[in-house]
Amino acid sequence: MDRESIAREVRRRQVQETLDFEREREQTLKEQVEIVITEVEGKNVDEAVFARMSPEDAEIVNAELNPPGIEAEEDPGFFFERDDLFNLDDEPAVDPHAEELARLNAELEDCRRRQRAFEAYLDALGRESLGPIRPSGSRP
Description:
The chain is mostly helical. It has one domain (3-69, 94-126). It has helices at residues 3-50, 55-65, 96-127. Helix 1 packs antiparallel against helix 3. The radius of gyration is 26 Å and the shape is elongated.
């Protein structure tokens, strides 16, 4: 039994699984960024596109993209039953979309950095033998 080969193969598999996870995570984060951007810019895009469409077609598409119901933007007190308990006048205006985009972009950078590290490990692992594997605690 070649202990080094076994250890290399298990490590390769472990890191490859983690790398695959990070790639999927990156895709999910990209999709979340797109959703936040669409929340901000979607209505402007819709208006421009709907102007080029028949009213009937625009109504069908609008109903699908913007189902009827209460939207938080239409009713700022929607999430608070007693918004009189909060003094929101003293709080600086913060764009929640900007905060979310910053958070997602930071996660994307972290995800990409982790991918580079795992790719470097796999690259280094595949080059050549690392030398003999010694039992834990033994000296050369």
